[in-house]
Design goal:
The chain contains four helices and ten strands, in the order αβββββββαβββαα. The chain is 18% helix and 32% strand. It has 168 residues and is an alpha+beta fold. The protein has a six-stranded antiparallel β-sheet with strand order 7-6-5-4-3-8, covered by helices on one side. A two-stranded antiparallel sheet has the order 1-2. The protein has one domain. It is globular, with a radius of gyration of 16 Å. Strand 3 and strand 4 form a beta hairpin. The longest helix is centred in the C-terminal third of the chain and has 14 residues. The structure holds zinc ion (ZN). The site of zinc ion has 8 residues, from helix 4.
């Protein structure tokens, strides 16, 4: 089961994409140390809301009673800059297959972004298609004109940011 969750964080280039940047099933975060963080947006269709997250991989060295390990930290976009405005949410516990809060967490269990992320995680771990539960995932994209990072689903699918879309 540990492998099952760890697999979710690996890039699977052959994963089926039905629309640009949108994966029908799966949750293949790019977490290599090269890319630093993987950014994706989950749209909750019934709420009509979307949440953008980042997962950062960090190799922690052994300290005190803790052995060396690889940790995955979840952040949620809470500002206008999709490169830097991520607030820390918690740690993705690979062993327990859970998003868990740590001392630095300030979000509550009822925060919409937390609820939606957990709902998505539950669906994936149960082997269900998140889309069947009204959850759409888009990996971040890049504007084909200016190269800016795109996190809004419509823009990702179009391959252009809103400003550039008006200029082509
Ligand atoms: Zn652009």
């Amino acid at each position: 089961m540990q492998e099952q969750l760890a697999g979710l964080f690996k890039e699977e280039p052959e994963a089926a994409e039905d629309v640009r940047g949108r994966y029908k099933i799966g949750w293949e975060f790019v977490t290599s140390s090269v890319s630093g963080a993987s950014i994706f947006t989950i749209t909750e269709e019934t709420l009509g809301k979307r949440f953008t997250y980042s997962v950062k991989r960090k190799d922690l060295r052994a300290s005190g009673q803790y052995p060396a390990r690889t940790a995955y930290f979840l952040g949620e976009l809470t500002g206008p800059d999709n490169n830097s405005d991520y607030s820390y949410v918690g740690e993705l516990d690979i062993g327990a297959k859970k998003l868990r809060f740590t001392r630095k967490s300030f979000m509550s269990d009822t925060a919409p972004g937390v609820v939606v992320f957990r709902k998505y995680l539950d669906a994936v771990l149960a082997g269900h298609d998140p889309e069947a539960r009204g959850l759409l995932v888009h990996h971040c994209g890049k504007c084909g004109r200016c190269g800016r990072r795109l996190t809004v689903p419509e823009s990702i699918e179009m391959g252009l940011g809103p400003e550039c879309a008006g200029k082509v």
